[in-house]
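About this split. The held-out portion is used to measure sequence recovery: a designer receives only the C-alpha cells and must propose an amino acid at every position. Recovery is the fraction of positions where the proposal matches the reference. Here is one held-out target exactly as it appears in the evaluation file.
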C-alpha cells in the first residue's frame, strides 16, 4: 500500500463507474420521493411492497452522494500535481452554485406563475407533513437570488426554501473543504497518513456522520488508486454477495440512524469499486448517461413533484382510471419529465464544471493582486 503511484498513467476510464453509481442514486431519489411523498398518499399498498423498499430509500442515496463526493474530490486532488486550496474551494462553490441558481430561477418562475399544486394537493395531515410544506410563501426575486447565492450554502432554512433538495449543499461545501484541507495538510509527496485518516473516520462516525461519509470516501479513493482490482474469483463472489446482503438488510431492517445509513453507503460503494460485474454494470452506457444528468436530476425533481405530480394527484381521479392506474401514470410521467428536464439542464452542469475554476482564478487574482496562484503540496 505504501508503494508510489504513477499518477500520469491513471486512466480516467477506471473511475467511470462512480458516475454510474451517482446516476442510479439520483434516479432512486426521484423514484423514492415520488412514490413515498405523493403516490403513497392515495395508494399506500402500491408503494409499500417489500421488493420496493430499497429502491424507495432516497435518504440512503443521499448518503451515497456524500461518500461519492469524498471519493471523487479526493481522486481529483490526489492525481493532480498542483494543488491550490483557495482556488479549489472557491471553484467548488461556483461549480455547485451555477446549476443551483438556474433551478432556483425555474422554481421562482413556477411559483410566480402558479404552477405549483403541492399545497392544494395536500388535504390530509400526512400530505401536509412533507408535500404540503413547500412553496407556501410568496415569490420574491431578491429573496430567490439571496437563497441561491448565500442561503443555500451558508444559511439554509428548510421552512423557507426554493428547493428542499438543497439541504445537502451546506454538507457538500463543508465536506469539500474537509477533503481539500486534509489532502493539502496530510497528503504531501505521495505519503499517506493512514492512522490520521482512520482516527478522523472514527471521530466523524460518532460526531458527524455526514463528514464520516466524506472521509470514508477519501479512504476509498486512496485504496482504489493503489489496489486496482481483486482478481481472485472467490473474492469477486464475496463482493457481490456482500452487496446483495446490504440490500437485503436494508430491505428488511432499514437503519434508523444516520450512522447506519452512512455505513451502508460506504459498503455498497466499496463492493462496486472492486467487483468486476458491478463495475461493469455501473460503467455501461445507460449508467453513464444517468451519471451525466445526475446533479440536474437531483435538483429538478422537487420542482416537478410539486408541480406536475401534485397536479396529477388532484385531477387524475376525475377520469375514473382507479388509484393504481393513476399511480402508474403519475410515477412514469414524473420520472420521464424529470429525466427530460435534467437532460435539458445538463449543459448548465457541464458549463459549471468548465468555468468554475476559471471564475475562481479570476476572483482570487483580483482579490490578492497576484499574477500566479500559490501552489499547495
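Reference sequence for scoring:
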Amino acid at each position: 500500500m505504501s508503494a508510489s503511484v504513477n499518477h500520469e498513467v491513471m486512466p480516467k476510464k477506471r473511475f467511470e463507474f462512480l458516475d454510474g453509481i451517482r446516476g442510479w442514486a439520483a434516479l432512486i431519489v426521484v423514484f423514492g420521493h415520488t412514490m413515498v411523498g405523493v403516490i403513497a398518499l392515495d395508494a399506500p399498498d402500491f408503494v409499500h411492497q417489500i421488493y420496493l423498499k430499497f429502491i424507495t430509500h432516497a435518504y440512503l442515496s443521499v448518503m451515497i452522494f456524500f461518500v461519492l463526493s469524498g471519493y471523487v474530490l479526493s481522486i481529483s486532488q490526489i492525481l493532480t500535481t498542483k494543488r491550490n486550496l483557495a482556488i479549489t474551494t472557491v471553484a467548488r462553490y461556483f461549480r455547485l452554485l451555477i446549476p443551483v441558481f438556474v433551478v432556483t430561477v425555474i422554481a421562482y418562475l413556477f411559483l410566480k406563475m402558479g404552477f405549483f399544486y403541492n399545497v392544494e394537493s395536500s388535504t390530509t395531515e400526512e400530505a401536509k407533513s412533507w408535500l404540503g410544506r413547500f412553496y407556501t410563501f410568496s415569490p420574491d426575486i431578491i429573496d430567490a437570488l439571496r437563497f441561491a447565492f448565500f442561503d443555500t450554502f451558508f444559511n439554509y432554512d428548510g421552512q423557507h426554501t426554493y428547493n428542499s433538495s438543497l439541504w445537502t449543499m451546506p454538507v457538500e461545501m463543508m465536506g469539500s473543504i474537509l477533503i481539500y484541507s486534509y489532502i493539502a495538510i496530510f497528503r504531501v509527496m505521495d505519503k499517506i497518513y493512514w492512522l490520521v485518516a482512520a482516527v478522523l473516520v472514527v471521530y466523524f462516525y460518532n460526531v458527524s456522520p455526514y463528514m464520516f461519509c466524506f472521509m470514508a470516501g477519501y479512504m476509498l479513493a486512496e485504496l482504489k488508486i493503489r489496489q486496482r482490482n481483486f482478481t481472485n474469483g472467490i473474492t469477486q463472489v464475496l463482493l457481490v454477495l456482500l452487496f446483495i446482503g446490504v440490500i437485503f438488510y436494508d430491505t428488511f431492517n432499514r437503519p434508523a440512524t444516520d450512522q447506519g445509513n452512512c455505513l451502508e453507503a460506504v459498503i455498497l460503494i466499496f463492493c462496486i469499486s472492486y467487483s468486476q460485474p458491478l463495475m461493469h454494470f455501473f460503467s455501461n452506457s445507460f449508467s453513464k448517461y444517468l451519471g451525466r444528468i445526475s446533479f440536474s436530476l437531483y435538483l429538478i425533481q422537487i420542482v416537478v413533484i410539486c408541480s406536475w405530480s401534485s397536479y396529477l394527484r388532484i385531477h387524475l381521479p376525475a377520469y375514473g382510471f382507479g388509484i393504481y392506474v393513476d399511480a402508474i401514470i403519475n410515477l412514469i410521467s414524473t420520472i420521464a419529465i424529470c429525466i427530460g428536464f435534467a437532460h435539458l439542464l445538463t449543459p448548465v452542469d457541464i458549463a459549471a464544471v468548465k468555468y468554475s475554476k476559471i471564475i475562481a482564478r479570476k476572483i482570487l487574482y483580483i482579490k490578492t493582486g497576484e499574477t500566479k496562484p500559490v501552489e499547495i503540496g
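Annotator remark: Residues 7-368 form one domain.
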